[in-house]
């Protein structure tokens, strides 16, 4: 489990609120725009459409694109920064783009880009993040840190900490899912326990969800955005293109400005502050029940481990190997059958007992 350093504890208390860099009246607040800047015309027509949506508070566009494979469209570079300027002066929307090195940062500062983000492929590189942090020293530009492509929290926290250490306070984390080797329903697995753990460690750090890169599929933007809102996430980054199918990058996941607005209008924001006293009492009672069950599970696990150690001792005395694979297989089958009858998910129970069994084996060694 990740630990908070003293710096991260301070960060948690002194990080700026989203309102100080992106004022918004509605939840969700949305940063929207094309995956990549392609032309001035594409940028302006997309931005004009998005500016009509009351939830859209900033315009994004990738200027330098970190593509997984070479010979893909790698972004238009510096001219795109001029287009971002045009978007801002015409629509009034603050602008955002991705930076991956010092030169990108310097150019963004020169062209007054309002918000920067560090992409998933850069968060994994402490050298690159440090270089970006140092290039930003002395400014107070808001920086959004996307999670690293691999499913772990350390590099994510590390990148945030590096930016904080040079004096940046307008920070936020972006959950954009994690790559997997096997093909799944999503382009990048959401792996919700990781952003939830980040929220637990740093509850004041604003957290944004990027359903476009999680899903890779425009049809799934809505359910994943709703899931994010249900988990208390208030900001979304969603890709939008006037002609999504013709986009030079990430075509399958982009929505037209009109569709994006329709999707966002349908989302139901959850109210984090519970005003209703009776509701609060009911929830407190249910939470107490849940905690009671959790305590029972812990007691039961402790009792199970006690028996495990006793049998381990016996096996040792009689020279019997610790692991008996057929016993483990029967046990697992039996537990899964029982779990199914009880309405529990078989994969879930399998995962739970795999952890318990691994610990039991360890206790006997
Ligand atoms: C993007 O936002 O277009 C992008 C490249 O994102 P990520 O770093 O999350 O892949
Ligand atoms: Mn993209």
Give your account of this protein's structure:
With 365 residues, the protein is an alpha/beta fold. It has two domains: 6-266, Aldolase class I (TIM Barrel, Alpha-Beta Barrel), CATH 3.20.20.70; 277-364, Chorismate Mutase Domain, subunit A (Up-down Bundle), CATH 1.20.59. 50% of the residues lie in helices and 10% in strands. It is built from 14 helices and eight strands. α2 links the parallel β1 and β2. The longest helix is centred in the last third of the chain and has 41 residues, at 277-317. The radius of gyration is 24 Å and the shape is elongated. Bound molecules: phosphoenolpyruvate (PEP) and manganese (II) ion. Phosphoenolpyruvate binds at residues 35, 62, 119-121, 146, 176, 210, 213.
Key traits:
alpha/beta; 2 domains; binds manganese (II) ion; elongated; eight-stranded parallel barrel; 365 residues; Chorismate Mutase Domain, subunit A; binds phosphoenolpyruvate; TIM Barrel
What would you say about this model in short?
The chain is an alpha/beta fold and 365 residues long. It has 14 helices and eight strands. The chain has an eight-stranded parallel barrel, surrounded by six helices.
Bound small-molecule species: phosphoenolpyruvate, manganese (II) ion
Rg, rounded, reads 24 Å
Seen as an oligomer or otherwise, the chain set is single chain
CATH topology of the largest domain: TIM Barrel
Number of domains: 2
The average pLDDT is 95
């Amino acid at each position: 489990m990740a630990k908070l350093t003293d710096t991260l504890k301070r960060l948690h208390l002194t990080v700026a609120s989203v309102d100080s860099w992106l004022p918004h009246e509605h939840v969700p607040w949305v940063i929207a725009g094309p995956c990549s800047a392609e032309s001035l015309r594409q940028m302006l027509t997309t931005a004009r459409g998005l500016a009509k949506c009351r939830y859209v508070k900033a315009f994004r566009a990738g200027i330098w694109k970190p593509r997984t494979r070479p010979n893909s469209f790698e972004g238009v570079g510096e001219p795109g920064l001029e287009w971002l300027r045009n978007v801002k002066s015409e629509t009034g929307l603050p602008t955002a783009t991705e930076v991956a090195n010092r030169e990108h940062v310097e150019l963004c500062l020169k062209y007054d880009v309002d918000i920067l983000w560090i992409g998933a492929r850069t968060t994994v590189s402490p050298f690159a993040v440090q270089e970006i942090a140092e290039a930003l020293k002395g400014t107070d530009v808001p920086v959004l840190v996307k999670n690293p492509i691999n499913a772990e929290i350390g590099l994510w926290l590390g990148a945030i900490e590096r930016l904080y250490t040079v004096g940046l306070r307008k920070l936020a984390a972006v959950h954009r899912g994690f790559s997997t080797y096997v093909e799944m329903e999503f382009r990048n697995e959401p792996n919700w326990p990781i952003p939830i753990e980040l929220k637990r460690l740093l509850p004041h750090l604003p957290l944004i969800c990027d359903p476009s890169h999680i899903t890779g599929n425009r049809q799934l933007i809505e359910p994943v955005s709703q899931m994010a809102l249900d988990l208390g996430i208030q900001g979304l980054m969603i890709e939008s293109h006037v002609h999504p199918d013709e986009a030079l990058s990430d075509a399958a996941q982009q929505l037209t400005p009109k569709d994006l607005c329709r999707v966002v209008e349908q989302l139901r924001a959850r109210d984090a502050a519970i005003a209703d006293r009776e509701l609060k009492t009911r929830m407190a009672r249910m939470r107490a029940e849940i905690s009671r069950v959790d305590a029972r599970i812990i007691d039961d696990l402790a009792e199970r481990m006690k028996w495990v150690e006793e049998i381990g001792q016996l096996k040792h005395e009689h020279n019997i190997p610790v692991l008996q694979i057929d016993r483990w297989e029967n046990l697992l089958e039996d537990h899964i059958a029982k779990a199914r009858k009880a309405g529990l998910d078989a994969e879930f129970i399998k995962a739970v007992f795999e952890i318990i069994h691994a610990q039991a084996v360890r206790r006997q060694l």
